[in-house]
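Q: Hi! Curious about what Transferase looks like structurally. Here's the sequence.
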Amino acid sequence: MGKNYVDIEDDQGRTLRYRKHVNGRGLIANGAKVHASALVEAGAYIEPGVQIAAGAHIGRGVWIEPDAVIGPDAEIAPHAHIGSGAAIGSGAKIGVRAVVGARARVAGGSLIGDDIQIADGEQVATDQRGLRLAA
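A: Let's find out. The predicted structure is below.
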């Protein structure tokens, strides 16, 4: 039986330990909180301070930077990137290869399409078709 963790060296030469999430085998850094019912697929990286709520689905190759918050039942499609301190609302859907910048906010129920970029600090709300709503 293989070990249930991986050690990875960061850009500053520090070694960070990631454990494999029981539901999907994605890598979860020490200090991150991931609900047991969330699915974190293999190949996803969840950094320290991240919070992932019940029922969230994190796809393969997703990178969630420190202190981001992923709401209940949110779906992050493969290879998306969620910036440091970003917040994804309940039931929001983030598309394949989408980038949500640092400290950005995506409202609950929003749909962010494939290859879309949300700027650092931007606040976005869309309808279920992905059309942006007035602020």
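A: A fun detail: The chain has no helices and 19 strands.
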